[in-house]
Specification:
homotrimer, alpha/beta, TIM Barrel, 8-stranded parallel β-sheet, 10 helices, about 15% strand, ComA_synth (chains A, B, C), Aldolase_TIM (chains A, B, C), lyase (chains A, B, C), ComA_synth_sf (chains A, B, C), phosphosulfolactate synthase activity (chains A, B, C)
Chain lengths: ~260, ~260, ~260
Amino acid sequence: MNYTLSNIPERDAKPRERGYTMAMDKGLSLREVEDFLEVAGDYVDIVKLGWATSYVTPNLKEKLEIYRAAGIPTYFGGTLFEAFIVRNQFEDYRRVLDQFGMTYAEVSDGSLDMAHDEKCEYIAKLSKQVTVLSEVGSKDAEKIIPPYMWIKLMKAELEAGAWKVIGEAREGGNVGLFRSTGEVRSGLVEEILTQIPFEKILWEAPQKAQQVWFIKLLGANVNLGNIAPSEVIPLETIRLGLRGDTFSHFLDMEKPC
Amino acid sequence: MNYTLSNIPERDAKPRERGYTMAMDKGLSLREVEDFLEVAGDYVDIVKLGWATSYVTPNLKEKLEIYRAAGIPTYFGGTLFEAFIVRNQFEDYRRVLDQFGMTYAEVSDGSLDMAHDEKCEYIAKLSKQVTVLSEVGSKDAEKIIPPYMWIKLMKAELEAGAWKVIGEAREGGNVGLFRSTGEVRSGLVEEILTQIPFEKILWEAPQKAQQVWFIKLLGANVNLGNIAPSEVIPLETIRLGLRGDTFSHFLDMEKPC
Amino acid sequence: MNYTLSNIPERDAKPRERGYTMAMDKGLSLREVEDFLEVAGDYVDIVKLGWATSYVTPNLKEKLEIYRAAGIPTYFGGTLFEAFIVRNQFEDYRRVLDQFGMTYAEVSDGSLDMAHDEKCEYIAKLSKQVTVLSEVGSKDAEKIIPPYMWIKLMKAELEAGAWKVIGEAREGGNVGLFRSTGEVRSGLVEEILTQIPFEKILWEAPQKAQQVWFIKLLGANVNLGNIAPSEVIPLETIRLGLRGDTFSHFLDMEKPC
């Protein structure tokens, strides 16, 4: 840090199991990736190449190389997995992962209907090849999954081999964990946490109010995802109680003065 | 593309008459232009230097040179045309176009009152000097133009020499084609399309929901404009059915599995 | 300017006492700072390193050097001052200002409770070390300060040594001067201006509609702050009547044609 402040919440250091920040790259240039890592490389744990943007971005190999050199793992968004599945191209997908040297992958079913047994089979198969993040929750605002079902799905996916489960929110933060207004479905989150260890869940929380909500509930070291590259530094200050939104929260807990 | 997926909607290749993506540069640095073109140069067809930003940006000549070298035509936003007209400086405007080597120009009347005959005269005059895009629709949310009038204006402007007509939405996407909430005036769009060929219209659609709406109605090769530079890659995935929003749309049409 | 337009509102030239544009850097990379200054260096007067982002950004010294070389003063956001104060580290804060060669500082009480006498003492002490901007208004949307109190606080802070007083709006533009919807509390602003000279006030106005409102009320040379780096060029066009929002406003005043 650039100077010393007392009573800052403790942050696990990288590499860490909790306090993960997952950022979303939806088409950065090589120089923009370098700039992002110059500023936020110490704070970001993993980068998702959003949905199937990797299909069209012309700089994919070089970009993955920059992230690799910086020690930041990357993975393709779950929509890409689904795009291969819906076309009966699962084996092609596995080859693409190898071809680009991917060590992580996401399994999701946000844009298609898939039996949950089948989803768990994909998780099991892929987890022999890469580290799997699996995602629970629909991208369709009309599909409301009740809390007991979120828990059942998350448990089964972790047992099938998922390293962490992701709570779906999209880039916009308006489905899944969130109402269409962006408001957190708080009862849902609290019930999930009675059954699933919080370090196993990566919460998608692209909007600042959502990040604040999770940090107030679960502390500085909650796993948060779908963070825009330019918002990783702001998020880190929220984690540390150094932005207005959480300024009093941590001080009240620790009574520093 | 970086890998092969079956059943992807067909996209016309550049240079193309339909499937245009017009991006808006509202003050990029030279390096940002280079970064933008590295990532999105294959997908963007034309770049608008938003409204009259060209008056104040200090890097104008060098920037135009970068776009030119990449084969991407540029034009000044229609508000600049109007700024010259309202000051009785039309001949100065023509000289500015020549001075900067512009080969496209926009004629609009979104911020001032102009008889439509007069507007068509400007289109006719300028179309002898450059390729003209003309814009229909007011920037004023209070001015509601009925559908038959949109059609009459568009027809007259194409006849006067406009290469394409633009449906106004502003950078915010909340006027003209759209209600103040950003919702598409869908009846208006459908009625226009009964009379004007869709390849002659460039729809301003800065918001994702608007892009999705047009792509679902008119397909992957609809002309869309006022796209932020960082949103050209996301838009391309929406056109190809590779983002959640249009994932099922094209598959349902083509029944790939 | 790149070409000549008649009847453009007069803008004070830099260095200036009015017409200030304060931009917020919330974690730019060094190259992004260079890009920002290439485009907007002629228009931005001062840069705030937002809230306590300076605590976590790894490139702080080098970044400050770039701004310094370009002649753009910088200061740390008021939340950093408050973070030191709430920890009883005021003397550490003074040393940090010296260590980084800061010549400006912000004194605020948006995230903590502080007697106003105490705030004015901090302003008095710091104004012997640096040029002080002090901020009035809470970050808490629940705390409504009546107009007579805004005036009383602003007067006292200017008398205590503040160079300018800032009207609080946050990065989001939804508290203090603004209702939670972002709408300007216009009666409040008008009453303040009956008592405080407008060149002494820097209005935080991150949203375009807010910038437009202030420019229509107070003219091209109003002091505006919390402007995103990429919005400095757009703001300059609004000041000059060269964007739709203020296009007619200045023309109607000056009757150019």
